[in-house]
Amino acid sequence: MFCGDKKKLLEDMAYLKPTVFASVARLYNKFFALMKAKVANPTKGQFAGMFGGRCRLMITASAPISNEVKAFFINAIGVPMLEAYGQTENTGLANITGKNDTVNGHVGGICVSLEEKLVDIPDMDYLTSDVDENGKPTPRGEVCLRGYGVIPGYYMLDEKSKEVIDEHGWLHTGDVGEILDTGAIKIIDRKKNLFKLSQGEYVAPEKIENLYVKIPYIAEAFVFGDSLKDYCIGFFVADENMLPMKAKQLGFEGTLEELCNNQELLAELWKDIYV
What we know:
Layout: H1 9-16, E1 20-24, H2 25-38, E2 57-61, H3 67-77, E3 81-85, E4 95-96, E5 109-110, E6 114-119, E7 140-147, H4 158-164, E8 171-179, E9 185-190, E10 195-196, E11 202-203, H5 205-212, E12 218-225, E13 232-238, H6 242-249, H7 256-260, H8 263-273
Parallel strand pairs: 1-2, 2-3
Antiparallel strand pairs: 3-4, 4-5, 6-7, 7-8, 8-9, 10-11, 12-13
């Protein structure tokens, strides 16, 4: 039923009136920026019509969502938002929050079909024996999953399979988690996809990219580093809807190409990007 144009997704929802809306964090971030631009202080249910008026549950997954954005949608739409975590290798779902959970910033407890544990990552100073400044246990480490939902391996890729699934059947996700008092998991970092700069510093590009795409007028972000250099470089793609709105607020107008090449505007935008 999708019309095929992602720019008209809100129009599709207003027409189709979904009762459950599941999406990725990035799309919620874009909706958040659009809604926030329309009104400064939304009241409960004010934006319900934008989702068709019948939505009773929202689900977010694929990447962490900020507490600000999650709280905004819960209050603006007036329905619970569940946050899910998982990978294709474990059939998509490993953890999910409850609809009555009032605490944000975690991905809930483990699903009944799986086992979950943390494994030490000494190189990154994440240990299951970690404690906080008060001596309270705060176990941290790589999130590992085992159970019926975990794949036995990659098709005809034995060596690749051994890299992610150990001899005991544990899937090593590459994500770093912390166990909270409630037993819920909080995803705090990535083990995989790291690169080291010349000064020996490890950089997790996905974590940085996820921060940048939260800026409303940035549609895509790519961070790259070279082990012979002591700095990273970034490539950014402008959001064709949000950039003109931001530019107008700053007193600039023009086509998307003209705005992207306007050095005065870029100098202003750089204040958001370079932090």
